[in-house]
Prior knowledge:
The complex is a heterodimer.
Chain A: H1 5-37, H2 42-47, H3 60-67, H4 71-102, H5 108-120, H6 123-137, H7 144-151, H8 154-169, H9 172-180, H10 185-196, H11 198-214, H12 217-222, H13 231-234, H14 247-282
Helix pairs in contact in A: 1-14, 3-14, 4-7, 4-8, 4-11, 5-8, 8-11, 9-10, 11-14
Chain B: H1 2-14, H2 20-23, E1 25-31, H3 35-51, E2 55-61, H4 67-76, E3 83-87, H5 91-96, H6 104-109, H7 120-123, E4 127-128, E5 131-132, E6 135-141, E7 143-147, H8 148-154, H9 159-164, H10 170-183, E8 188-191, H11 203-210, H12 228-243, E9 260-265, E10 280-283, E11 294-303, H13 310-321, H14 323-329, H15 338-341, H16 344-347, H17 355-363, E12 369-371, H18 378-392, H19 399-414
Parallel strand pairs in B: 1-2, 1-3, 8-9, 11-12
Antiparallel strand pairs in B: 3-11, 4-5, 6-11, 7-9, 7-10
Helix pairs in contact in B: 8-10, 11-12, 18-19
Amino acid sequence: MNLDFPRLRLLSSSMYYLVMIVLAIPFLFPTLWMLTASLKSDQEIFQNPLALIPQSISWDNFTRIFHDYPFAAQYVNSVYIAVVVTALTLIIGALAGYGFARLNFPGKDLMFILCLSAMMLPSEALSIPQFALFKFLGINNTHLPIILLQIFGGTGALAVFMMRQHFLTLPRELDEAALMDGLDRWGIFWRIMLPLARPVLVAVGIFAFLNSWNDYFNPLVYLNSSEQYTLPLGLQTFTDPLGGVFWNLTLAASTLSTLPLLLAFLVAQKQFVQSMVGSSVKG
Amino acid sequence: MKHARRNLMLLTLLSLSTASAQEKVTLRFTTWAGGDGLKLLQTLATEFTKKNPSINVEVESIPFASYDQKLTVQMAGGTSPDVGWVAERSAPAYMSSKSLVDLNPYIKSNSSMRISDYAPASMTLWKKGEGIYGLPFSFSPIFMYYNKDLFQKAGIPTPSELLAQKKWNYAAFEASAAAIKKAAPNAYGGTLLRLDPTNWAAGILAAMYSSGGDIFNKDLSSCTMNSAGTVQAFEMMQRMIKEGSAPKLGEQVTFASGNLGMYADQVSYSGQLSNVKFKWDIVPMPSGPKGQKTLLGQAGYAVFSGSKHQKEAIQFVAFLSSPAVMKRTAQFFPPPRRSILNSDAYLNSNPLIPAASLRQAVLKQVSGAKALIVPANWAQVNDVVVRNMDRIFRPSANVKDELNQVCNDINPLLR
């Protein structure tokens, strides 16, 4: 009858971990496979496709993508575009979201619906008129259309929507109290509202960064030279003279382009999950 | 489209305040080349500018999978590239939408173009009526790569030996594949299909042609995928997959891994075999009841009608297609100019393939090779076949019935 309680608990928790580890395999395997395949030669990848451990580790793939291809330039492009897009989306999203939630002005609802429509139209349907517009502005073949289409396209609209919903949930008494204490509109926004919106800002920031980082279609349409390409396009350029893919180089480049996201997620995981839970409970 | 173009011309006229635009022209040249092929094109562009200081050429590399998508948006948006590569399977679509410029007037007035030097089969795709809408730079028959080590292991005569004895036919191909599978259970004997099922129209077409089959009738008005010859070719692959001598559909087995005895592809594939650890060689495709036939892969240079510098763009195409330049691009793409194709310099240009093998597999096959001429909506037709591939190659499938169904779906697309 002497039930060894701590040991039972240990047993049940190790069972729990075992089940979790088994369940995680399907999610982890592709990433692990990419990591290890990027250290193999092109032939070895196909010799035994499921093998995780390379016969001999070679860093050659990684040196070649930097040496023979403009991969470094493409990396820099992707990073700076994603940072600019994230920063501008946050600023515009927070300001516009606050405006839609708190200010009264004629045509407010119509404008909000117009703004949301940017989120609902598929980007391919708009691509030709947008292309003509940017051509008229003379900024084709620069990074500007890619940045602008994120900030004022679906990503930006989603940011405005999320920020507005969040500000709507904050009690108006806060604004009134701050007004009584002598703050003006800007002061209320900057000192009271924005700090309260931190979890949503984090979520919006992550979405904006991810959307920009993974954008394939717009760079494909607007960019013409390999030095200007962003990573998703660059990943498709590791080919032989007639377009046959060098998988070893492609996988090495994919590994490098995924790592920052993995790291960022690991670091910001807590806040990310919190913000998702927070917004759903309050909303 | 016409209106758009007129408006654009007005716009450009308005913006012609930049007088320098008239003095120095910049051409945009698009390609899906990668690696060394791209580097060579960039070098050629620089050399062209040296010869023609008023024309600058920017080489733009676009991933092959998105090549047509990007070009279509740019053409519709009024910023068409001036000149570029066009793949054989998209050429009819570009030609029917009048997106390519007729090069014939220029060719006629320039004897230096020596168009008669081109092998006739290389031009069929690009000619329409009196017009010539592109000049091929690649003339690449499909042939058979085989793994010498696996043949040795199986203790059977190699395809080269069979060819010398005039016994290299599809029955021998199938039997050799079975023997390899038996001797090396971890490997596969051979396949006529590609890794990517959307690219099915390659090696298996050679087998279809040499047993009298095809995809379409001559004027592309009806589907002949259910003809006896086509059915025969598909049935052979079905048998081989069923018996395990060919990899199943979608199974990731490549020739370069050393696990595949025979594989049908073009010269450019040899680039992936530069440091493999097994011995290999190439032979022509096997012969069938209707003789030895194969598919001729092609790609060409074309000038786009959206270009505002068509004259200069044609000049660049003429430069790229000149014998001197084609000799240099020949290291990657078998040249359609007969004078170069037949030269020793070309036959010795591939460091991986011995001249004698190249002569046999490329040169001698060219006369029996056929370019695949497709309708403008090939993408849709191809989708129908790809969708049905799994069903056609099921072990229990009746291939003839399945291909009848495929034709039922394709025929409405051809009208």
